[in-house]
């Protein structure tokens, strides 16, 4: 009897399944704090939240449930922070002399400039989507029909595109063949019994699709030659031939950019999800729950400690405004905190100064035809290359529509720095020229673009906190403690950096800490 049969047969309740350890509890159900955030005079305790990104809005939403009175100060005219969907009409001017951009995508077309995929195990993110009625769809992250392209290599297979599935199947085949040969030669005798070896060889035969002689001679897993697909009548199809092992090895595909992250990296394994209509559906849903609580176009200028709380000075309509509160939840990204006039402690200031942020950028390219679907059979997924464009992301939505926007580059570190330093026009030129090496249709089909470099984007100035062991040890702890009545939240205060899940979980941690402290006061 399988678990499913058992559950169906007994119609076991949710509670009993939980009790038997057959289900994981929904994380939000554990977040059940008593609603005593109000003072004895019936008014809510005042909390000033800096930043209307996911961390700030989650903090306001959860504190609101507990009776606190929250005000969010947001420097931008929109919510969401690094959760930002680019559509027709989106405007941005980057810092460091960037020229103004206005997106001219057609109606209904967009790309997620920041957060763009939700791993299936980010339960808290999924929980908030559910709670806020944000419908999800599949984000196709691993598509074996997308390409690898090694530029500048010398092998026969360099400087030309290769289907990911050809590469994976051939490498699996050859490595399985080599290992099965080693087993045949009894070199592993000491560790394994004869029966074990036979079973292992069976596994390798399947893993690599080896023939009866345990040799890799190609596989139908790579598919058929173009125009020789199986069909009606006398059309059995002609299989493709494998590439040679030495050709594969000498063509540069062992570089990290080509790793099979879609299968191997925990955060990128199927299934990935995304909100229907753009990632900003999440911040927009929070905004609806926070009517009247967000002050937009209100960049914070000073953060001060007072005897009983905090004092925040911000700019609004050219005027300087001051507000006070009992607590502050500061979700500003560290590059912003670094430049803020404040009474923050030395350890927090040093954290802001020395925790590096990722340089990263994307470009959305609108094409008048979805040639990657029509000509290449690519529906979502990611092409990888060692060129400056690094990755091409094909949209997992709007399939078979007339037009489409794909992400023409998504890069990090020095590639993002180099590309981000270019003018908007030069970025577009670069993305088109390099992308055309993989997709020769680019020049004919291109319509318009919108690019961004997060390290040059006002009020973010970086993609995400990029810790190593040393900075984790030296600077991170300062962000976990309140500094007087100031609490820190945001992905940079978690081990889930670079994910929305980090923003969510950090906000809940701050809310719990504030609420526990208030609980202590009210006991006195
Ligand atoms: N979460 C971001 C993304 O999915 C950044 C990231 C990239 C995090 C790769 C981990 C690995 O693109």
Automatic annotation (TrEMBL):
Keyword Signal among record annotations: yes
Per the UniProt entry, the Enzyme Commission number(s) are 1.13.12.3
Q: In which pathway does it act?
A: Plant hormone metabolism; auxin biosynthesis
Any Pfam family hit? Amino_oxidase
**Signal peptide bounds:** 1-30
Keyword entries, A-Z: Auxin biosynthesis, Signal
* Protein's name in the database: Tryptophan 2-monooxygenase
Q: Which organism is it from?
A: Spirosoma profusum
What taxonomic lineage is listed for the species of origin? Bacteria, Pseudomonadati, Bacteroidota, Cytophagia, Cytophagales
């Amino acid at each position: 009897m399988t678990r499913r049969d058992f559950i169906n047969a007994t119609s076991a309740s949710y509670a009993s399944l939980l009790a038997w350890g057959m289900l994981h509890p929904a994380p939000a159900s554990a977040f059940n704090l008593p609603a005593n955030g109000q003072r004895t005079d019936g008014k809510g305790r005042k909390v000033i939240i800096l930043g209307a990104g996911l961390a700030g809005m989650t903090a306001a939403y959860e504190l609101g449930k507990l009776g606190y009175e929250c005000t969010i100060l947001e420097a931008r005219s929109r919510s969401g922070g690094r959760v930002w969907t680019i559509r027709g009409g989106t405007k941005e001017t980057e810092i460091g002399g960037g020229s103004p951009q206005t997106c001219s995508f057609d109606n209904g077309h967009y790309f997620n400039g920041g957060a763009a995929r939700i791993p299936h195990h980010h339960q808290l993110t999924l929980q908030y989507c559910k709670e806020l009625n944000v419908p999800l769809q599949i984000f196709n992250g691993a598509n074996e029909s997308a390409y690898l392209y090694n530029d500048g290599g010398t092998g026969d297979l360099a400087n030309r595109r290769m289907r990911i599935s050809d590469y994976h199947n051939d490498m699996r085949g050859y490595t399985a063949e080599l290992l099965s040969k080693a087993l045949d030669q009894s070199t592993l005798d000491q560790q394994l019994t004869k029966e074990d070896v036979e079973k292992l060889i069976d596994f390798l035969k399947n893993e690599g699709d080896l023939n009866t002689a345990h040799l890799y001679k190609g596989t139908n897993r790579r598919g058929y030659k173009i125009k020789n697909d199986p069909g009606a009548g006398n059309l059995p199809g002609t299989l493709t031939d494998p590439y040679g092992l030495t050709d594969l090895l000498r063509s540069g595909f062992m570089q990290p950019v080509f790793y099979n992250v879609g299968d191997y990296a925990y955060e990128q394994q199927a299934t990935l999800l995304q909100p229907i209509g753009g990632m900003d559906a999440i911040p927009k849903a929070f905004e609806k729950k926070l009517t009247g609580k967000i002050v937009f176009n209100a960049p914070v200028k000073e953060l001060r400690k007072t005897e009983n709380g905090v004092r925040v000075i911000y700019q609004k309509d050219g005027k300087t405004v001051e507000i006070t509160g009992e607590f502050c939840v500061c979700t500003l990204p560290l590059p912003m905190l670094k430049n803020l006039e404040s009474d923050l402690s030395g350890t927090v200031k040093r954290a802001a100064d020395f925790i590096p942020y990722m340089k990263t950028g994307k470009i959305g390219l609108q094409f008048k035809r979805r040639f990657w679907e029509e000509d290449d059979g690519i529906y979502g997924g990611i092409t990888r290359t060692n060129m400056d464009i690094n990755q091409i992301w094909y949209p997992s939505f709007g399939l078979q529509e007339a037009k489409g926007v794909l992400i023409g580059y998504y890069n990090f570190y020095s590639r993002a720095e180099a590309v981000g330093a270019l003018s908007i026009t030069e970025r577009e030129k670069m993305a088109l020229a390099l992308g055309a090496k993989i997709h020769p249709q680019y020049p004919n089909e291109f319509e318009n673009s919108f690019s961004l470099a997060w390290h040059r984007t006002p009020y973010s100035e970086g993609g995400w906190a990029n810790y190593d062991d040393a900075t984790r040890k030296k600077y991170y702890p300062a962000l976990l403690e309140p500094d007087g009545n100031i609490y820190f939240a945001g992905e940079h205060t978690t081990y889930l950096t670079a994910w929305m899940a980090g923003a969510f979980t950090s906000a809940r941690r701050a809310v719990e800490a504030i609420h526990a402290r208030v609980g202590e006061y009210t006991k006195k």
